[in-house]
Amino acid sequence: MRALVTGATGGLGLNLVECLVSDGHQVDGTGRNYAIGKQVSDMGAVFTPARLEDGDALRKLCHNIDVVFHCAGFSSPWGQRDDFVTANIVGTTNIVSACLEAGVRRLVHVSTPSIYFNFKDRFDVSETADLPDKFVNDYAATKRDAENIVMQAATQGLEVIILRPRGIFGPHDTALFPRLIKVAKRGRIPLFDGGNAIIDVTYVENVVDAMVLASGAPVDVTGQAYNITNAEPISVRKLLEKTFKALQLDVSFLTLPYRPALVVAGAMEVIAGLLPNRPEPPLTRYSVGVLSKSQTLDISAAKECLGYQPQVSIEDGIERFAAWWRMQQ
To answer: What domains sit in the chain, N to C, each tagged with a CATH number?
Structure first.
């Protein structure tokens, strides 16, 4: 197939491009980072810099494309609402319009399980589970809006599949583990309520496998959203201990009670919101909540409909990430 990968310069996008090229597909990649764009080209893909708000550029990129993998977006626990709207709503609207106009066969859209989060313990959450009356932050809210835009395109003849991967980690990760490493180098790692919350994470190669499976899945399983995880629920504390051990970082943990931490994070958000450019506070309510409350996902639909089965365990994934990280340093 001929594939277009948006967000090709991000962690997931880079891994996906590498996989598709190695499988012999013709791959076009787009993103805003020119420097990392060279890596995309070096992998054997055609890289074209473009912004998600540039509808004309996206229409040109979708010409003669069979499958679009929409990895691009603004993912952050904090930021300006306009930035989330531009990347996640306007950008998705433009890529959907480009797909429909160019006659693209299928769109595989990467969303997020953050839309489920409601500051409560939730286990085996399915794709049809109730969503919060109010989303936890602008990221979750705009990603849900993006899902609705994609689903609307399904009524117009575009084959769509939405994936909701949880806690992606692995080579080229610039978010999850690097943030933790940065905190670790400052001193002690805060653990809310002892780090006993049970969570799901997903090694990036498993997410890539799910995306490839989604691109070739039968038409009758399109028009749906699918949870993607490693299917290995693990406590926050154990995940961190395994990660820092693999990275050979000697860290200590500071146990903090959940409720006071949530109040402090809320105060930090208020202060940050009053400052010029609204800088990200050291602690956000979402960060406290997601590390304090258990959330695991039911991936039976992805297994049954897409044939998804995680191939790389958390243990092996952490070792692979650590080897890659040491090489980058």
So the answer is: 2-173+201-231+295-312 (3.40.50.720)
